[in-house]
Amino acid sequence: MAKSPSPKIDSEPIDEFTQPEALSQFVGIELKKNRLAQHLTIQDVSELSGISRGMLSRIENGQATPSLDTLFRLSKTLGITMSNLFKDFDAPEGDAN
User: Fold this and answer.
1) Cα 92 from Cα 75, distance rounded (Å)
2) Cβ(78)–Cβ(31) under 8 Å?
3) Mind listing the pLDDT tens digit of every residue in the chain (97 residues)?
4) pTM given for the model
5) Distance between first and last Cα of the chain
6) 88: exposed, middle or buried (C-beta count within 10 Å: 0-12, 13-18, 19+)?
7) What is the C-alpha separation between 63 and 96, in angstroms, rounded?
8) Max alpha carbon distance in the chain (Å)?
9) What's the confidence (pLDDT) of residue 86?
């Protein structure tokens, strides 16, 4: 039996806005901005969300990639939607939102 050809993979280079590290850093910054806007400490968010202070700190500093469950819990704790958390990630600079 003949082997089917492998699917063609898009070979476009990954730019700085699509790298996983950039997304982790972006999410961390957005979470921290929302936390600070509400005058909450990491301890406050930890107690409300059930996520450790250490993990929250690593997420906010882009040193850890949160699971979807963790993002959902943090979004609910901060009173924001997950879609709002990501809404400006791939928007070009100067783009009207």
Assistant:
1) 24
2) yes
3) 555 554 444 444 445 545 667 888 999 999 999 999 999 999 999 999 999 999 999 999 999 999 999 999 999 999 999 998 888 887 666 555 5
4) 0.72
5) 53
6) exposed
7) 30
8) 65
9) 86
For the chain, the residue count is 97
* Whole-number pLDDT of residue 1: 53
- How far, in Å, CA of 29 to CA of 20, rounded? 14
Instruction: Look up residue 59 and give its amino acid.
Output: I
φ, ψ for residue 9 (rounded to 5)?
Answer: -100, 130
Return the half-sphere exposure (C-beta side, CA atoms, 13 A cut-off) of residue 18: 4
Distance (Å, whole) CA 97 – CA 85:
14
Q: How far apart are CA 27 and CA 42, in angstroms?
A: 15
What integer pLDDT is reported at residue 67 of this predicted model? Answer: 95
Q: How far is CA 85 from the centre of its chain?
A: 7
Distance CA 38, CA 19 (A): 29
